[in-house]
Amino acid sequence: MAQFQDxxxxxxxxxxxxxxxxxxxxxGFRTNAKLLDHIMFRMGLLATxxxxxxxxxxxxxxxxxxxxxEDNGVKLVDPMxxxxxxxxxxxxxxxxxxxxxxxLAALKDIIExxxxxxxxxxxxxxxxxxxxxxxxLSKAVLDGVSALGGRNKDYGxxxxxxxxxxxxxxxxxxxxxxxxxxxxxxxxxQAFIQLTKNASNCTDDQKHLSVDGANGIGALKVREMESYxxxxxxxxxFNDGSAGKLNHQCGADFVKVQQNPPTGINxxxxxxxxxxxxxxxVYYYTDSEGQFHLLDGDKVATLISTFLKELxxxxxxxxEIAVVQTAYANGSSTNYLEDTMKVIVRCAKTxxxxxxxxxxxxxxxxxxxxxxxxxxxxxxxxxEKIRQLAEDSIADDERKxxxxxxxxTINVINQVSDRRAIDTTDAERRAVSPTGLxxxxxxxxxxxxxxxxFVRPSGTEDVVRVYAEADTQESADAxxxxxxxxVYRLAGGVGGEPxxx
Length: 501
Ligand code: G16
Description:
Blueprint: H1 2-11, E1 29-32, H2 37-54, E2 58-62, E3 71-77, H3 86-97, H4 103-113, E4 123-128, H5 134-147, E5 151-157, H6 160-171, H7 181-198, E6 208-212, H8 217-225, E7 234-238, H9 252-258, E8 271-274, E9 281-286, E10 292-295, H10 297-315, E11 321-325, H11 331-340, E12 344-347, H12 352-359, E13 364-368, E14 374-378, H13 380-390, H14 397-412, E15 423-425, E16 430-433, H15 437-446, E17 452-457, E18 464-469, H16 473-490
Parallel strand pairs: 2-4, 4-5, 6-7, 6-8, 11-12, 11-13
Antiparallel strand pairs: 1-3, 2-3, 8-9, 9-10, 13-14, 15-16, 17-18
């Protein structure tokens, strides 16, 4: 077939280094940018197949998010703006690792397995972050799309949530919004303005926010969005990419891990940080005694679910709210949600796709990873109940006002989503291999009060992540160090023993 001739020809321009094996990780492929040209071309091919299969537009985002500048990566976006389905993650790995001479066979295997009609048209939306490698890598994606006869729309520099939004708008024929960057700003900002107008007692001070753009795409896009906010929010932008390096000493991951403000921000009140593709956000402030306070994903989920619960009570609407967390959620946030807020709490594996899936089971599913990824999902039935009340001419004013606030909330939330020596179970909270590691962790945890610890291989970086909590910072740091040493010894660590924190 002519299509496959193009693939053969074009793939020669994006050759795979022989023997290189890469896995589709937590959020796609991610490694040093120099190793990714063939992956990008092949993900262009795969996105085209996925589009033919689903008869819908598919998204491809070129970004390595919170990773250092020299890395890059790719995330695939499914028709409703969610992360690509797990079966296709498997195909992505197969296609990525096929040696050059086996590429066509690997492609045909997927076509056969999924019974794809190759005469079906295909559309792929492509976006990229500000990394210097992103321009040529996104070009490789576009080459892959055209090699299989797909149509593409190159959105250029966009945040990951913006690309998810475009895909969802396109596949809902504009019902979700207009599939342009301007449409995105208009939809979100109008809802935000409405929400702040309806919310009582919003002072001028509360309308100011310091934003750390992580020297990445988030900074560019916040600048663009500012005029749509019509002075309802005054933004001071830091780490805007004009001087510093992407994610270096700044950004959501830095702030969360270091529990400190980023370079450039003299954190007073109301600050927030994005990550490198602006799909994470954490908030923070420093109190009058100079103490730094982080409002991470756990805290954000708690605040949002409290807010929603109050509105539902005022509106008199009976809807089930659940909060989905990961093993990284601080134990006291889980207790608070369950015991005080009386909301259902579920634990899912790390990765937005897992949380998203779990959140879809409820009328309202609030999901946040502690690192700042998250959103709120409203079921269609929940949206409908809220809409009916908002439009009900005989409902009393307080109930209607609550319903209108809930509607604004729905609109302001972008609902679309989203080492190997260690193997885990129980939503990654317990290690099953290597032998003896979980027992060692259990013994160490018992030495401390209110302590919890777990380890898991990262799916985005070549590291093992160690989580520890305890009643004091010193104990948590000491436990983290002891668990790191256990991992190092039992799982064959490299690069010298971990140092105390
Ligand atoms: C991605 C995923 C997140 C995950 C993070 C870290 O985020 O979308 O769900 O929490 O990786 O994953 P890991 O601990 O496996 O390295 P991002 O912002 O890096 O794309």
